């Protein structure tokens, strides 16, 4: 057990880097940023798998050793407990007066009558009656075997909990995706590529995901006057199983801490924000409309930032190079409830009361044709520094307002719609985690409440028609409260003990 405790401490200690350092399974971009900002220690930490703590060889080694230690610790204890359940209570000590709890008195009756009465009143105790060498009748009784059983259940449940968590990490997955409400395109979880971020278990290759499709019809949020959210929920439709072939959509109200459970997956509502809509009318009259989520920078007022990139429609610029030079990028701030400080835009409330934007409009090569991944929320500053993107306007727009560029291009802000952040989680061992957690707490409670104790009663013939009754008690684990319990037990076994002065009593 000492080894298991040391390994459990080491496991907790080994998990600290996973909490302090960015993890590649959660955010690979942050890991790359950390290594770039710490060029000396970053590569060494990467070699030591400090950015993949929970799948590293050293964390796995501690985990496996903890399993082995727990099994090696619990198996002998289980065997020993099984033997103790079959064993009979030990004989009474020669001198009962040396025990921490002792009581002796003289009462009328014969040894057989008194012994029968004591055995009857020791119901629930494991008892055995013996005859001493001096003719005395001895009764040995023991109780509290459930304490060790609870202790064993606790430790085996801990072992099972660790196994279940490991199984969940091996065979489970977790993905996050943003879904735009009010007519947005929806989402289907058939492939990891459909998620904005996806964290797979070590055995998950993404080919056996349970397909679920959902669309968000509406989103409602309630706020206090200071802007603090009190509740938010989304009315969604979803398809799963046979619904995908029949085209049937089922309604569901998705709320915080009330996930949609289907096909072994859980779909959580984690957060929300807003997706502005812009329409660009190019000089030849063709239009492009785009609705895209922007990142909330202020969680209280939902002042958000983001960028949109527009590629001219086919035929507007026949030459590919010319088309690339006439791409548009819109970058700036969005406020759900407009508040102006001069010309500076901010938001006074998180609800969509008076949407407005403050944007910079760029023209040129937005990098859409390079194949290089770009941030969804900011432009690549290298494109601006290299002169490939040129700022054409800076303007504040309310819903429905538009601005015209020098070449006749019109940019209109159409408003905004809410979006929700959805997490799809699959953990095949979650039920076992709950079961083992409950049995672990039950075993712990039993091991703390139940006490292992022993009682011996020696009945010796005295004067004709009377016997000497001597009782001794011993708590094998916790002495707390044992004195009062022994007194109550004495009064129940030999009622005369409550009124007859004892021959000898010792309380330690």
From TrEMBL:
Q: What is this protein called?
A: Cytochrome c biogenesis protein ResB
**A Pfam family recorded for this sequence:** ResB
Q: Where are the transmembrane segments?
A: 57-79, 152-171, 431-450
Its signal peptide is none
Report domain ResB-like positions: 1-487
Q: Tell whether Magnesium is among the UniProt keywords.
A: no
- What is the superkingdom listed in this entry's lineage? Bacteria
Q: Report the membrane topology from the UniProt record.
A: Multi-pass membrane protein
Query: Could you tell me which InterPro entries the record lists for this protein?
Result: Cyt_c_bgen_Ccs1/CcsB/ResB (IPR023494), ResB-like_domain (IPR007816)
Q: Indicate whether Cell membrane appears among the record's keywords.
A: no
Q: Which organism is it from?
A: Mycobacterium deserti
Task: Kindly state which keywords UniProt assigns to this record, in alphabetical order.
Answer: Cytochrome c-type biogenesis, Membrane, Transmembrane, Transmembrane helix
Q: What is its main location?
A: membrane
The protein's location, in the record's own words, is: Membrane
